[in-house]
Amino acid sequence: MNSIYPSPKSSAGLGTVGWREWVSLPQLPVDRVKAKVDTGATTSALHASDLEYFNDGDQLMVRFKIYPLQRDASLTIQAVAPVLEKRSVRNSGGQAQERPVIRTPISFGQQQWEIELTLTNRDLMGFRMLLGREAIRHRFLVDPAGSYLMGAPSGSVADLDEHPLEAIAEPKSP
Question: Could you read off the pLDDT of 33-46 as tens digits, one per residue?
Answer without folding.
Answer: 999 999 988 899 99
